[in-house]
Task: structure prediction
Amino acid sequence: MSSREGEPGQQPAWTPRSRLGLLVMQGKVSSLHQIFSEGMRIQEPEIVKTLLPDLESEVVGVRVVQKQTDAGELTRFSAVVAVGNRNGWFGVGDAKGPQMRIAIEKATNQAMLNIIPVNQGCGSWECRCGQRHSTPFKVEGKCGSVRVVIIPGPRGLGLVAGETAKRLLALAGIRDAWTRTFGSTSTVTSIAYAVYDALLKLHVLVRR
Result:
């Protein structure tokens, strides 16, 4: 019996649609660090899957979205997914779909396209160990009315944060930090993007 696409263990063959994808398939680009250092744009999630085989994904939240149409009430699902390898790479994506599984898959692919390097360090004045266990300095991220402040912590502190922020920071590879959250903290989508915004600013500031 022939297998159907999407069954467990069955992965459709990847045919690159971009120049970068072709370079990755040919082995001429072998790391995400090379992609970012050369300023190339990731347009295919398969690029990230290939270069980060240990990548994990986590569903941050799923909600039902209903819309009134001429044919009646249309129900769709909206999903927010985070991806990371727990060692310096992190991304967040959101998408809608007619089924929960489809929405999650689309959001996961979007998170891969949004992946960024997470600059780790030891910015805690209490520690100064020089290891990559926290952030190199305090940074703040925003999304809508939500603000998330990430403060470097000493080794062994762990993540002092709300449940959503803690899961996301761990996925990004941050092991020790204090956080402060302001605004509508019950909105997991805004928290996820505020954390992403903070880590993106960290990346931009370190590059300067």
User: Anything to note?
Assistant: The helical segments are 19-25, 32-37, 45-51, 100-113, 163-172, 188-207. The radius of gyration is 19 Å. The chain has six helices and eight strands. The chain has a mean pLDDT of 90.
